[in-house]
């Protein structure tokens, strides 16, 4: 069974790639945080019964200073301290009605800024790159923010919002009144928990398709006639992130200078182009759908993976230390397979291309991840060129010619059939339709070997009931199980892909749990095209390439080949009911020889995996299982034939094997 390589979709900072509403302490103009502004006066009197959620919410506004006073506010300035996972820093925020905001978060090692100029929301990352929030989900949430800012949620006649009074609940041993807020524009839901005696807000919960944010509030104070919580703690699932905020200053006055909310210009890219002038075209090594480029850091040249699915560029943690680039901080990231820990490393520069006339990229802050090199092979990679690198250019990927061309963002480009592809999690996303009936948005992921469908999309379309071949993949966040299936057609950006093979995620782990995307398109589909990526304008162009009619390679045997501690190939996983299981393979079998040729004569794990893709052939494997020497014949069918039950418990994957990297 060929292992589908998946790219590292890592989110390391609170805002980057995370589309939940901004949850600072007194953010007047952002949706679903209205309860932060609601606090009650203490007292021994029992509160009256509330007829519905609207009455309860109005009572909170009145108890916290009066609804008319809240409606009359024009803006605010606030500052304080914050801690995100293992990083501590400070923040400043300005707001002005309607919808204008600017938030600056300074962690010392880096600073990031986000805001809204009244027309569009934007984000500027630690490397100075600016991203406009143009994806459909962000646009909908911004429209909800506008309506909440106008207090439409308090109108029982609203056609958008619905407030419901739910039964009281116990929260940390405390009985709370509960209001539930829904809307008809998306599936987001929020719950607000209030102390029945004081009407103070105790907690809130916001649920979105991809995540859930639980918040606790305390340290309430009166500030110019309004009562506000000065301390807030947020927990984000399934990202396993924690954020704590301490408010130290609050002024109820809107900034006079509108320029403070303006979209900032992107930082001047520290680029030095080759003397041959732009574009800079680089030949790449193509291995199983992956694009590998030689990159020099501090004079040391190693293989790096080009990955449009990586929200940040990445460097291996041990490699960074070898170069004297000491990783700092600690933050939680998430990606394919689940969550993982990471640090940050400042890199003095990257050098690509010919040694006599290279492309030089100036200093950047990269994510540092442990095990990146150790869990990769043939070629071993020491870094990933993700969004921080790719967004500096307009990128052309010619899979047939095995060449990547990098154009300046302001370059005059040829006339192309551009398609709008707003970034989501810093990945280009295109609308597509599978088998004429299953429509959704698909991310474009240069770092993924194989294409896959996310678990929520698969559930909605009952795909888990279909037969296929079980697969296992390893990401930095852990293992992910999929079932490979063949479909009739995929329509994407005016192009028709016939008979695509896609993996269906069996669990909602890591990026496979994205509820606002249908799936992720990797190299097995993208390599059919001449692909253009324009980050500044958030658009792509797909032209049929030299490999457009190349048939997809099936993964018919249900056998995962990994690498043992001695570096030789071994069996890491056997899919239930697949041909490999029927032939008697067991996870942990060491491969001694294939067809009489010693395994040491083969060019590593990839060579063995290539043999498994030769449909119709039968192979004789000599195996070592403990003290036993065994021989097994494996015949490779042309198409997946095994039918696996959706309820079947998957067998364990050998933990002590070094599985191929699915980054």
TrEMBL record:
Question: PROSITE patterns attached here?
Answer: PDZ
Keywords (alphabetical) are: Hydrolase, Protease
Q: Name one GO biological process term.
A: proteolysis
Identify this protein by name. Aspartyl protease
Query: Which top-rank group of organisms is this from?
Result: Bacteria
GO MF term list:
peptidase activity
Q: Which residues form the PDZ domain?
A: 539-627
The species is: Desulfuromonas thiophila
